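Extended Data, panel c. Modelled sequence:
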Amino acid sequence: MPSEGAAGAEILEHLLLGFQGGTVPQEIAALISGGLSGIALYPRNFNSPAELRLLTNQLRRAASAPLLIGVDQEGGARFALPPPFTAWPSPADLGRLGNAALVEEVARAIATELRAVGVNTDFAPMLDLAVNP
């Protein structure tokens, strides 16, 4: 039977957590070094791209393994990153255009912006269904 520490680490491998503020709390840093899978960041965690980059660097320094650092940057009316990040069209608006190449181009541009600030996971939808338009 695994020790309590091993079981705790196994649970951490399946979680992404968020936190308040613009610096990594000690408790979160301890969880990250103990194997926490990832962190979800929100506008409450930063005021500028430079602050976001500093924060993602802090998170990576605390990690003992690769770390997922995610935001919800899907475009449309509700997106996590305020200006100066690009305000992208919503996935529904892009879908209505019927242009797969344009969707791919926008996705690559979003990924480029996120990578520049140290974010490696986007909680954007893979598939949304408009079953009652």
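The longest helix spans residues 100-116. This feature is highlighted in the accompanying rendering.
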